[in-house]
UniProtKB/TrEMBL annotation:
InterPro entries in the record: T2SS_GspF_dom, T2SS_GspF_sf
Domain Type II secretion system protein GspF, chain residue ranges per copy: 118-242
Record membrane topology: Multi-pass membrane protein
Keyword DNA-binding found: no
Membrane spanning stretches: 6-24, 57-76, 82-101, 225-244, 256-276
Stored PANTHER family: INTEGRAL MEMBRANE PROTEIN-RELATED, PILUS ASSEMBLY PROTEIN
Top-rank lineage group of the source organism: Bacteria
Main location: membrane
Location of the protein in the cell: Cell membrane
Keyword field: Cell membrane, Membrane, Transmembrane, Transmembrane helix
Protein name: Secretion system protein
GO cellular component terms, semicolon-separated: plasma membrane
Amino acid sequence: MSASELGLAALIFLSVSVLLFVAVQGTHATLGRQRTVFTQETRRSLADMFIFADPAVLWRLNVAALFLVPLLVYLLVPSVPIVVVAALLVAIAPRYVLLYLKKRRFLRLHDQLPDTLLMMASALRGGANLGQTLEGLAKDMSPPMNQELSLVVREQRLGVPFEEAVSHLAERVRSQDFDLVVSALRINREVGGNLADTLQRLGETVRRRLMMEQKIRALTSQGKLQGIVMTALPVLIILALLRIEPAATGALFDTYRGWAVLAIAIVLEILGYWGIRKIVSIEV
């Protein structure tokens, strides 16, 4: 091998090494930023739901799943588009799991709110003050309402003003109904008035609103189910055709044109499902 060939080989080796080093450093920096964002958002979301888990452990589990799940999918179905879709689903799964948990807790809080307000009104009419009423409800109610009320009581014991403690409650729940309750408590604290009657009227109003929301959810549940069925039907048809006629449908997963068709189909599926959800979602 001549000196020029050795020099060219050394230059190529050096260039590839530099590119690999830059790629590794870039990947490490990107993962570091993603980990910071993930842990901060997850810690805040879990704390709001009174779930005390280590976000760093959840991050490591998510990264491990991001590598293992696509590998298992490739071993079962050696198709690049399916592997890419599996990786994307694993990447976005934690966010949607947190959103599902928050929504479920939010609905549970709303279901408990009318009974909580009526119990507060009864306790105030019985001669208890507001602090004693909140402390009693924090012991008697079931989660998640007792968790929120217990935090309000603990903040007051630590010296936090009542107005700030209930404002923190409204910030955690972020609901129009809870904002009304907090406003009523703060106004009564400042100017006085018959708080028991106010809470009873609020409880009855919230109860009627919840009944309306539940009725709307029942009436629109069929439309939501139809959206799920219509979205899943093309996927089931493709799986059936792969089983019945693998040679005819294999081009969808083995050629660039097939990948393009699958990408367009997935986008249209997502847009269709989103459109159905928007149609059947009615705000009260």
